[in-house]
Design brief:
Number of strands: 15
Helix content: 25-40%
Strand content: 15-25%
Strand order of the largest sheet: 3-2-1-15-14-13-12
Largest sheet: 7 strands, antiparallel
Structural class: alpha+beta
Radius of gyration: 21 Å
Order of helices and strands: HHEEEEHEEHHHHHHEEEHEEHEEEEHH
């Protein structure tokens, strides 16, 4: 479907009728043409500089998608422009979804965040931590306390995948195998005393979800979150139709003057679900998830998780002596609640303004790691300025 500006007046009207119907059936409040400023233009310099190929941006409050826009290219070589319904690998934006799944089980009294992980996964019983280490020796000691469930969700557990072979912990390995491999290693530090962002602990959270719920991790997400929220394009395994909308991933060329495709396998169903970073999704789907969080765990008359659990997830849970501010599955700093993905996808909630901003690109490499840090703040600033009049009073609470 091409943009309405490329159609006749009759075509424009038909385009918007179809668009409105699509949004209604998707459970989103439609934004009329007159309400669509060109907020994505703030990202054009990054495209001109070949830092990114294109992006989808979205702004929403607790009940309404206020703005959604595509800019640049889904596939540069093929000359395919980015579209608002394009599918992206959201990578570590999966982490808040995984932690939300576990917190749903906390609400049901099936998991206690202050319980030892070994209560749910016995393979973690009696873990030791590395008290001393150099090139010639490694001294292990029992920690003052065991790893707690809360340590997993705040990246303070000390669990890592250091020096484990890829066959045990790669995405081809079953989740149970991966997590058992983590448990076989000593902890890197005393639980709760240090922060190290990583995947092993969040993968362990996904395994707890499996053991406690009796469902596979992917099945739990599908039936308890994705289907009821209407997240129809969110999956670990994009369908053929979804794959046709997949935005090409890019990385810098060797001469650092342009972009070249960066491939990622997605069609192999043998690839196991990856709780720390395996999901594919769209801006619209992730907006629904963020709206549920902004609404204190409810959306469209259905409650998913309690306000108490949302508060735990979205406020600092790392100890006072730790510099990093992280909740349960969310980064919590500068009065923002947010999470990035490896290819520079981002979702941010600004509670004071009652505003959600989502910026999704598909780029890897050193340039986007450094210069790319300006991309998300540029759109968030534009969205906050444009929708400032709505303010926190516009946020509907259940």
């Amino acid at each position: 479907m091409i943009a309405p500006t490329q159609r006749s007046k009759h075509g424009v009207n038909r385009w918007w009728r179809l668009r409105l119907l699509a949004l209604v059936f998707a459970g989103l409040t439609p934004v009329l043409p007159a309400a669509q400023p060109k907020l994505a233009d703030v990202l054009q310099p990054f495209i001109d500089d070949r830092l990114i190929a294109g992006a989808v941006v979205l702004a929403a409050d607790a009940t309404t998608v206020l703005h959604v826009e595509a800019i640049g290219w889904r596939d540069v070589a093929a000359g395919k422009p980015m579209r608002t319904d394009d599918v992206f690998w959201i990578a570590s934006m999966t982490k808040p979804v995984t932690c939300t799944a576990l917190m749903m089980l906390v609400d049901e009294g099936k998991v206690d965040v202050d319980a030892p992980v070994a209560k749910y996964l016995p393979e973690f019983k009696d873990q030791m931590f590395i008290a001393e280490r150099d090139e010639s020796h490694q001294l292990l000691k029992p920690p003052a306390r065991p790893v707690l469930v809360r340590d997993l969700m705040s990246h303070t557990s000390g669990i890592t995948r250091r020096s484990l072979p890829g066959a045990l912990v790669g995405e081809q390995a079953p989740l149970a195998t991966r997590v058992a491999a983590y448990a076989s290693q000593p902890l890197e530090w005393e639980p709760g005393t240090k922060y190290l962002y990583g995947n092993a602990a969040i993968n362990t959270v996904g395994r707890i979800v499996e053991k406690v719920s009796g469902l596979s991790y992917a099945q739990f997400l599908q039936v308890r979150l994705f289907e009821p929220l209407g997240m129809k394009d969110t999956s670990f395994w994009p369908s053929a139709e979804q794959a046709s909308r997949l935005a090409t991933g890019y990385q810098p060329t060797k001469d650092k003057t342009g972009l070249e495709p960066a491939r990622r396998e997605l069609s192999d169903r043998a690839r196991e679900p990856f709780p720390a970073g395996g999901l594919y999704s769209t801006a619209a789907d992730m907006a629904k998830f963020c709206q549920m969080i902004l609404n204190q765990g409810a959306l469209a008359g259905r409650r998913y998780v309690s306000p108490e659990r949302v508060k735990q997830m979205t406020t600092r849970q790392t100890a006072p002596g730790i510099p990093e501010s992280y909740g349960f599955g969310w980064t919590t700093r500068d009065a923002l609640v947010s999470h990035n993905g490896a290819w520079k996808t981002n979702m941010t909630i600004t509670p004071s303004a009652g505003l959600i901003t989502i910026v999704i690109v598909q780029n890897a490499g050193w340039r986007v790691e450094s210069e790319g840090k300006k991309i998300e703040p540029a759109f968030r600033k534009a969205a906050l300025e444009h929708f400032a009049q709505r303010g926190p009073e516009a946020v509907t609470r259940p």
